[in-house]
Amino acid sequence: MMLPESQNGHSAVYGAVHDRMTVFGGYDPNTSQGYQNALWLLKNASQSSPGWEGMGTLSGYALPTLGHTAVYDPVSNRMAIVGGIIQNGQGGIGWSNSVVVLTHANGLPVY
């Protein structure tokens, strides 16, 4: 089973209807990149045998970020990611004031 790397400073939101948790970003001190912008989905999150699924990255939409905030709207199945600390291209860090909205946040389309 594929597992996300150990990280801190990430965000996680939980959708009770489908029992799924979505995790974004954070910092992995064990990689050269450090700051992350990967999305992970934990299916059957409250069950005895949950399973992780990598959902890719938000490249082009969100910079690798840590210390941000995320909220989940179960009606629209959207996750809003707000602010955080970002790593710029020159290896420095700064504060983000961006808001990124992820549709299909629990991996399922809304009909």
Give a brief rundown of this model.
With 111 residues, this protein is mainly beta. The chain has no helices and 10 strands.
Keywords:
111 residues, four-stranded antiparallel beta sheet, three-stranded antiparallel beta sheet, single chain, mainly beta
How is the secondary structure organized here?
Blueprint: E1 11-15, E2 20-27, E3 35-43, E4 51-57, E5 65-66, E6 69-73, E7 78-82, E8 85-87, E9 93-95, E10 99-102
Antiparallel strand pairs: 1-2, 2-3, 3-4, 5-8, 6-7, 7-10, 8-9
Structural description of this entry:
This protein has 111 residues and is mostly beta strands. It has strands at residues 11-15, 20-27, 35-43, 51-57, 65-66, 69-73, 78-82, 85-87, 93-95, 99-102. A 4-stranded antiparallel beta sheet has the order 1-2-3-4, with no helix packed on it. It has a 3-stranded antiparallel beta sheet with strand order 5-8-9, with no helix packed on it. β6 (69-73) and β7 form a beta hairpin. It is globular, with a radius of gyration of 14 Å. The model has no long low-confidence stretch (mean pLDDT 88).
